[in-house]
Amino acid sequence: MKHKIITLLSILTLFTTFSILSSQKDIDAHAERTYQIGTDVTFPPFEFANNQNKYVGIDMHLMKAIAKDQGFNVKIKPLGFNAAVQALESNQIDGVIAGMSITPERQAKFDFSHPYFKSGVVMATKPGRNIKNLKDLRGQKVAVKTGTAGADYANGLKNRYGFKIVTFDDSNNMYEDVLTGNSAACFEDSPVMKYAIKQGTNLAIVTKPALSGSYGFAVDHGKNKALLTAFNKGLNDLKKNGKYDDIVNKYLGTKDHPVKAQTNSSSRTFLGLLKQNRGALFSGLMETLWLTVVSIFFATIFGIIIGLLGVVPSKFSTGFSTTMIYIFRGLPLLVLALFIYTGIPSLTGTKIPAFVAGVITLTFNEGAYIAAFVKGGILAVDSGQMEASRSLGLPFGKSMRKIILPQGIRIMIPSFINQFIITLKDTSILSIIGLLELTQTGKIIIARNLEGFKVWTIIALIYLIIITLLTWLSNWVQRRTNL
């Protein structure tokens, strides 16, 4: 009896000790909580990546300064504006700071901090064009960036002034559309447009700021109240001690100390850009290759299973295989990625990391194509061979494994290599959910130096080199399998 009591007391003591340690751990974790903060990182001077590929700008410095002041940590997630907003709605992240204007529509979905910056929308055009005011836009096209105050402003005026709107996901492409003459003008937030012009963008502002509004830090409606309260307290502290003004003036300058433009011409050559950004480009390439390898691995497993089900003598199996191939080949990759990354978490409340969401997207999409050519490769083998093997008494499984599959695999191998190439290219679409693969890396570099043509040329050459090597491999494998 004594032993039982001692044992019971020991168990209770261990349980109590474990509970206390767990509680203390939870307290410590809360005290050092790290919040996931989504941002655009292609919206200078508020958020962009510097030469060391670190995220800087008014918003980035402000967020980090407030976190330090209030004793919490932040992890910046470069998602792009639209993806950041959707990720916040689906609880993938805790907050968004991305030069987001506070509007009644957004206040219905999000809780905003106290305003931390006031701005207005201006119209810019290429110097020399006969565009001086809004009336000159009649019959013209106007470029805007999706989800911005400039886009809202333009949409509110298009019927009155008779112009059409062209929408872009980032500022650089919007500027380029005006510079190439495809659009007559663009609408952009005043400080962003002024910063771009100082950095060498050949545009001129032709209107005074309109639709004055304020930027705010946003959390999902009714959630993360502690974070929102901490942000407001930290913002108030920074304004009182002068750090807020220091942060803003660092990027916007003052009348006595204006921001200097980037004048180093050597860093704007192809070789200079490659040398300056080689670390970021290499990191983006590695992410692309790793994403491709992992995705094609799971896509191959998924595709083989679904493809084999399509040739099994069962109506249910063949129907299931046909349906899966039809669904995942029919869904656009972009839609599938957003559905998995933001749609499913909205329904389940469970966060899905961007990399996992990307792998799942490519697994289903590329796996459906693999399933189609696995099924086709097996069906391409003369049906008489299956009949002959069955007539000799071999069961279906053994006939498939010993006779049909060895011949079908020879037909499939080149298609597998080609699908690897396609998967590599399709990873670029996943930049929409914030994966820092090669394409997203290019966007971030362009946001800093606005050298869109040169950076995209470098990115294109990197893709071309990798795809050429894979094509040579495909041709070599095809020759070997035909021997």
What would your notes on this structure say?
- This protein is of the alpha/beta class and 483 residues long.
- The protein folds into 3 domains: 32-116 and 216-252, Periplasmic binding protein-like II (D-Maltodextrin-Binding Protein, domain 2, 3-Layer(aba) Sandwich); 117-214, D-Maltodextrin-Binding Protein, domain 2; 272-481, Orthogonal Bundle (MetI-like fold), CATH 1.10.3720.
- Helix content is 61%, strand content 12%.
- It has helices at residues 2-31, 58-70, 81-89, 104-107, 149-161, 171-179, 190-198, 225-241, 243-252, 270-276, 278-309, 315-330, 333-348, 354-380, 383-391, 396-426, 438-449, 452-481; strands at residues 34-39, 48-49, 55-56, 73-78, 95-96, 110-112, 117-125, 141-145, 164-168, 185-189, 204-205, 210-215, 218-220.
- The strands form 4 sheets. Strands 7, 8, 9, 10, 11 and 12 form a 6-stranded mixed β-sheet that branches. It has a 3-stranded parallel β-sheet with strand order 4-1-5. Strands 2-3 form a two-stranded antiparallel sheet.
- β8 (141-145), α5 and β9 (164-168) form a beta-alpha-beta unit.
- It is elongated, with a radius of gyration of 28 Å.
- The N and C termini lie far apart (80 Å).
- Residues 1-31 have low confidence and may be disordered.
